[in-house]
Specification:
Elements: H1 9-12, H2 17-21, H3 27-74, H4 76-103
Helix pairs in contact: 3-4
Length: about 100
């Protein structure tokens, strides 16, 4: 029975970290690996933030367009004001998306 491959906790007991995970990397290499990992996480977070901004902008544009159509049908004089509000919102949303793209 002693020739069986140890499993679970028996495989770990009595071994050093170097034996379990392989040899350690030089400090400069480990720092470079950590820096690349951090850059990847930051990039992924920025892309996710841009996606969220786009989703919120699309949702709000849909709501504003609905209000514009509803109010414009009942009051033609105020319809141009609502159209201006929607266009201003689009301007702000687009500028925010462009700023985020520049910062990537």
């Amino acid at each position: 029975m002693s020739d069986l491959v140890p499993r679970g906790i028996d495989a770990v007991v009595g071994r050093r970290d170097a034996e379990l995970w392989g040899p350690r990397l030089p400090r400069t290499v480990q720092r470079a690996v950590d820096a690349q990992s951090a850059r990847g996480l930051v990039g992924a977070a920025r892309v996710q933030a841009a996606s969220f901004v786009a989703q919120v902008a699309i949702h709000n544009l849909e709501l504003l367009s609905h209000y514009e159509a509803t109010a414009g049908a009942s009051d033609p004089v105020a319809a141009s004001r609502y159209t201006g509000i929607v266009e201003d919102f689009l301007l702000v949303a687009r500028s925010e998306m462009r700023r985020m793209a520049r910062d990537l």
